[in-house]
Amino acid sequence: MNARVQNTCWALVLLGVITLPAEASSQTREYRFGDGTGLCVHFNDPSGAEFAEQVLDAAVSAYQTLTQFEGFHTPGYSFASPDKNYAYDPDQIIDIYLGTSDEENAYEELGAKNKLFRDAPCFDTRKTGSARYEAFILLPSNYEAFIRNWEQMNPSPLGKRNINVDLRGTLIHEMTHVIVFYYNKNLDKAGEESAPSAHLDWYVEGLARYFETFAGARHDFYSQGFKQTLPDRIRFSRGGSNYFMRYPDQAFTGLRYENALFWRFMDVRFGMSAIESLSRRLRSSPGEFKEALEEVTGMDFKTLLERYATSVLLGDFELKEESGYLHPVASTKLLFDEGEFILLDGRGGRENLGRICRTDWIGSWEDEQASFGEASVAGDATEAADVSAWATDYVQLRLGPDSALPDIKLKNLGEGQPISVQLFVFTRGGSLLQAEPITVVRGATRSLDLPKRLALYSLDPSDLEKIVLALTNTDPQKTSPYEILA
Ligand SMILES: [Zn+2]
Question: How far is the CA of 270 from the centre of ligand 1 (A)?
């Protein structure tokens, strides 16, 4: 009985502490959810109250979207009922600080972390005990100027950004990092337990970027990134899905924000519950994401890569009225005429390759064009035909006017796991024939049985608009060189 009374008292005392402002010099706007989680927006510019309220509003809907609507609320993993032996926020408050990078910010509790405003918007934690991590988000208090500047560097084909929608996108992006931190510490992205930070962004940043679309923010999801050479430095951003459509041939685990498209694929095909259970599964074995993905999708990883490659080629992500924002995937463009391959550049040039194609060079993608001798405008950085680990090369082949159907073969010159080849035949009548994937092990040469397959459908070469090969490297680490033979 006594103990019970005492507990109640403690609870009252704690509540009193929680509702006090963190410090005298800053002001706050606060919100408390039914699950006990609190949000607290801190600002120290007296004119910042209105913006603080906008931020609070955006943060409330971000938290609700993630936890209530998208299911990131499993006990033992969620922010509201975490595993206290793994990671928890002792006051159960997500703090959001508004500040600037060029002025002195004086949030006492942030200490040296005040200088992180240089990286804002960003998420971080303050570790205050073995499993105690105080979650906080830093946002530029001059958000509108920040976005207008960003917009100037990185003009969006979707038009001018709406600041309020953008703010909501930013909040749900950072809130994803907050929520996922208590699931799997963002796979130790911060490097606290010594994991190499650069190789986890395919999950952490790709997923956060995908969640931006849940707040209606699309500019960064569809961004194709940019590269700017300034007198003193290079500004570079990998944008979002259209960066991936331009550069599909990159090792899967090296992908960053552009992997948002993969999470769209996962969500459409397997549902958010699969992504949520993947996020749980990754806590116990962050290195085993191949197995984890197989478990939550019920599909072997090779098939998953093939299906994803197919969606990328066909732009099949159920984007509906937004599908026009996603550009077609970049491909090497070949012509087959008089028994030989001809490589096409972006300016009408042709180069005869003979009966073997040994290049994956790309001469045109959207508005980008290159002539022979110039760097490839898309795909990867090398001219030699090769495909990165867990990535896909796309090769488009058209037939000359009187050309016979070539018996195309793929030679795998790699030393790792097989290359999977998917054949897509687009007819002039508008149909698409898609063959079962063919597996080509290292050192082997295999025919794609093109003439035989087309005979089944009674198709003539003149019925074909184009043929596309999707060459997926199923090796987790090794780049695979290859040749296409006719
Ligand atoms: Zn992020």
Answer: 23
